[in-house]
Amino acid sequence: MATRAKTGATTTRASSRTKNLAAPPSPPPVAKATRSKISKPTTQAAASGSKTAARNPLAKRGNSPDARAVPTQKIAASQLPRVANPKGDNAEQEPIMAYLRIRPQLGDEEPTSMPYLDPMSDTAVQMTDPNNDNQDNPSRPRFRASIASPSSIYKFSHVFLPATDQAEFFTKTTLPLVRGLLDGQNGLLFTYGVTNSGKTYTIQGGNQPESAGILPRTLDVIFNSVEGLQSDGRFRPVRLYGVEPSNSTNSLVSMNVNVSTSEPALAEVLAEHYSASDPSDAYTDPTILRLDRNHEYSVWLSYAEVYNEKIFDLLASVNEESGNGASQIPRSAAGPSFLLTRKALAVRPSPASDAMDENGSAGKYIAGLRHFRVTSASQAKDLIKLGQLHRRVFGTLANSQSSRSHGLVTIKVLRGHRGERNDPNSLHISRLTLVDLAGSERTKHTQTTGDRLKEAGNINKSLMVLGQCMEVMRSNQKRLAQSLAHPGRTDTRDVKKALAVIPFRHSKLTEVLMDYFAGDGKVVMIVNVNPYDTGFDENSHVMKFSALTREVFTPTNNAPVPRVASPTKPSTTNKVRISALPIARKVTIPLLGRKVSEAHLEVFEEEEELRPDEEDDDDDEPINPLVDALFDEIEELRLRLYDAELRCAIVEAETREEVMKEMEDRMFAMERNYARRLMSEVERNEMKMDAKIDMLHQTGLLGTAVKQRPVPPQMSSEEDTQSTEGIGAEKAFIDISDDNSESDAERCSSPLAGKGKKNVDASGLKLAAQLLAEEDGEVAGSESIIERSMIVDAASGEDEAEAASNESGNDEDLDDYTPPAKPSGKSRTSTTASKAISSKSVPNDIKAKQRSSRRKSSLGLEHQMTGLSVLSEDDIPGADDSVIIVPNRKARQVAAAVGGPGIEYVPRKGEVDTVKKKKRQLTSKTVVTEEQMEKVVGAVEQRVSNNDNGKTIRRMRLS
Ligand SMILES: Nc1ncnc2c1ncn2[C@@H]1O[C@H](COP(=O)(O)OP(=O)(O)OP(=O)(O)O)[C@@H](O)[C@H]1O
Fold first, then answer.
1. Which domain of life is it from (predicted)?
2. N or C: which end of the chain has fewer CB within 10 A?
3. Given pLDDT bands bounded at 50, 70 and 90, which one contains residue 893?
């Protein structure tokens, strides 16, 4: 037997049957366990007993002494809902267990509250789209980019909140599977979720001792429980259900993977930085499961990855070639370089001899995947680390340790009776596979391109196919259940024939796992969600997948009818052909060591070998070329879509940035322009207003004549002349009512209203002429003075005496009004002198000439003033036409009390009227109705008339 096994010509099938039903704690019904092909009468008898038990699962589960002896499992089993097996046999079915784990918030960069996930109970969560801000107002139109439902409630077997620790999580989700494994039952656990949601943390754990994940804890519990019950490992598992005599090549020592002593050279270089100081090694889960001490156990480990739709053995020794220059990889001075060659493994159907019954399938296995016997938890953990080292772990923007492949760790336990150590028929094989799925990729967020994009496409393909398998399984089961519920309506056999093909073969991942879904043990799915930095839409898809999965049932008791299988055909490996050329990739692995910063690896990935006889696949699943082509098409389109979206996002971002910059520049330029214009306008306004106020002063009505203000610098020489004229003219616009005898009508009339000579007060003209002389900045000789004096005389005429009396009038009627200064002595003298000249020494004809000339000049001046008034109004931006200048604050108060805007106080010389100034700066136009104006004017006049001796200066401009 041993000899045959060594040659590899014969393999055996271990028995799946419980031989001693009375032996406590006998396991519950075994799913697909293996049985030796070399049958013995005793084995057959036992198998027969087992067969009976297998067909009566309830008796085996609930009523058997074994079940009573294993309380943990009994509780776990009793919690599960049961349904009739759609296959029509007596096997029980359980839904796939789905657990939700919510990742806690990490660091400060993420928001403090879960934005869209609301745990409602231990088994339900509500997801609400945070962008759906129209919830409160249904009448408002909804524009949502997302196709996911805005709010949904999802149910799970259990919801684990962020505070859940690893120990509790392991106990509730995985321990029942470990119990099943040691009791001979198969199990599958996989984590599902988007990148960075905590899948790897759940499976492998964190850096802290207590944060060990479910994989190291599983190994701890297994070795805690089998302590003292380990067999010598004389048989080893092959394929899915086969056993064969073990040989030395499968021991860790023989393959130089005794990690405690010597590792492969690559691992020596790299792993020392990876594993030397891993604090989680120090932790051991203390849980011990009680086992039947009449049995002995051997534990086998394999570690595979599905990467880019290829399967690789992560524990296979790698052919390496260290830094000898053979590779084209640019060598780093700091780090070592390796050329690795690894070969993709094929998934093959097990030979029919492995099948448990004639009609049954023996399942598919990964051809060439090596299993290593491990005798302690620490040894197993080291082996896992070696596998992780080989696993492709690339840093992406989303997660520096993102898993780019699906990692499958399979633990196989061979259990045999102590009394029948040499009998392979006494062996049970059970297996537990823990799968760390790669994250569903967010290409937009991770800026995935090139190789990463291809990886993403393949990852998504695997997950998509997994979802499709679930969907088809669910609909098949529904149809069968309906048919069984109404047996008269349709023939169940017809329904079975019409069931849709489950597309397991469309991805390597589902192909490898299909036996679990097809009824080979319990399936547990862990849904990892990170609601802090992952989008609502992405997690919605994950949730939908989990909701779908929970509706799929897997048979938990699928023990087939045992039969003696024919010997396995010898391997035809020598006739293999390589399906494609090797693919070379360059990998850079960052290291944690001080000396070595990174290692460059060149990986040659050989395609899987296909046997000639495998080209016509003998799989029972029909191949539909159209479906395959459509899948390829979908993948192609998906990749192109990702690529296009990525490019669009980049272009959009760049365009936005450019436009923003341009707009910013423009805004700055506009701001500068406006500020400059505003300042110049304010200055101009101030100049003009000051000039006007100066005119008032110079008329002597508001105080002593002030010195001439400088002409605004922006005025040209041409403007200068005009402005000089304007100033003089504007002075003439001042309606001077310096005596109380002036009629109301005259006082209220605007000097602009008539624009005629009679509206121009004689005193005003006189002063205007004087001002003109002063503004010219020179005394142009006596003639010009005489000329101007004549003009004044002619203009004043009969009003002269009145004007003279007004000059000496009492102006103390207004409390804060400063009486105008007396005209300067020079002016007065000039006037008097001119009068003297005119009356005494000038002949009559000359007088007449002078009179006509004076009349002309007067008319010219009047004309100039009229013109300038227009110029003045139009020229001053923001000039307020509705302004009333009142002589003092009190008057303003009175006017303001009566109501009506536009009341201005004319300050004394040197006094600053801040209100007016501010008003000017704001250049706000006040609109005053005629009615308001009249009211104000009336009030002012009233006030003025109440003060007998007051002088009122008002200026009204009615626009
Ligand atoms: N329950 C948790 N408690 C504390 N930290 C956690 C938890 N879950 C995840 N993390 C941390 O979140 C980060 C991302 O987790 P992890 O690497 O497991 O994500 P992932 O889903 O495996 O990502 P990928 O699919 O890209 O491999 C890690 O730093 C991990 O330590």
1. Eukaryota
2. C
3. low
Pocket test for ligand 1, best of 160, 392, 399 (most atoms within 8 A of CB): 399
Residue 439 near ligand 1, beta carbon < 6 Å? yes
Please identify, by atom number, the ligand 1 atom nearest to the C-alpha of residue 438.
25
Residue 436 Cα: closest atom of ligand 1: 22
Could you give phi then psi for residue 458, rounded to 5 degrees?
A: -70, -35
Is any ligand 1 atom within 6 A of the Cβ of residue 399?
yes
Tokens linked to 558:
């699928």
For residue 836 and ligand 1, the question of a CB distance below 6 A is answered with no
Q: pLDDT tens-digit profile of 714-739?
A: 444 444 444 444 444 444 344 434 44
Dist. CA 347–CA 621, nearest whole Å: 14
Q: Which amino acid is it at 179?
A: R
Of 159, 183, 186, nearest to 173 (Cα)? 159
Q: Where is average pLDDT lowest: 14-23, 389-398, 447-456, 933-942?
A: 14-23
Q: What number of other Cβ atoms are within 10 A of residue 640's Cβ?
A: 12
Residue with tokens 């399906």: 579
- E strand segments, 209-267: 235-238, 242-245
> Rounded to an integer, what distance in angstroms lies between the CA atom of residue 558 and that of residue 457?
35
Q: Is the pLDDT of residue 172 over 50?
A: yes
Beta bridge partners, 602, equal: 339, 586
Q: Judge whether 388 and 408 are in contact, CB under 8 Å.
A: no
For every residue of 492-561, DSSP letters joined together read HHHHHHTPPPP-GGGSHHHHHHHHHHTTSSEEEEEEEE-TTTS-HHHHHHHHHHHHHHTT-EEES--PPP
| Contact between residue 229 and residue 296 where contact means Cβ atoms under 8 Å apart | yes
Which residue reads 């100049």 in tokens? 687
Ligand 1 atom 2, closest CA: 103
Mean pLDDT, the chain, rounded, equals 64
- Please state the atom number of ligand 1 nearest to the C-alpha of residue 101: 1
Nearest CA to 191 out of 407, 465, 468, 454 is that of: 407
Closest CA to 694 of 767, 749, 779: 767
Written as one letter, the residue type at 946 is: N
349 lines ligand 1 (CB under 6 A): no
Greater confidence (581 vs 613) lies with 613
Residues 864 and 729: their CA atoms lie apart, in Å, by: 6
Mutation pick for ligand 1 pocket among 103, 202, 396 (CB with most ligand atoms within 8 Å): 103
211 lines ligand 1 (CB under 6 A): no
305 φ, ψ (degrees, to nearest 5): -135, 145
- The protein residue with its alpha carbon nearest to ligand 1, atom 15, reads 198
CB 424 within 8 A of CB 235: yes
Question: Separation of 104 CA from ligand 1 center, angstroms?
Answer: 9
* Average pLDDT, integer, range 333-348: 68
CB-ligand 1 contact for 105 (6 Å cutoff): no
Q: Looking at the CA of residue 437, tell me the nearest atom of ligand 1.
A: 25
Distance from C-alpha of 269 to C-alpha of 599, rounded to nearest angstrom: 9
Query: DSSP string spanning 373-405?
Result: EE-SHHHHHHHHHHHHHHS-B---SS-TT-B-S
What's the rounded Cα separation, in Å, for the pair 928 and 880?
Answer: 10
- Assess whether the C-beta atom of 103 lies below 6 angstroms from ligand 1: yes
Instruction: Please give the sequence-ordered ranges of beta strands (E in DSSP) within 717-820, or none if there are none.
Output: 735-737
Q: Is the CB of 338 under 6 A from ligand 1?
A: no
Distance CA 327, CA 346 (A): 27
Higher pLDDT, 60 or 400: 400
Give the C-alpha distances (Å, rounded to integers) separating 727 from 120, 455, 723: 84, 85, 6
Pairing of strands 117-119, 124-128: antiparallel
Helices (H), 569-700: 625-698
CA of 169 to the centre of ligand 1 (A): 15
Amino acid letter, residue 190? F
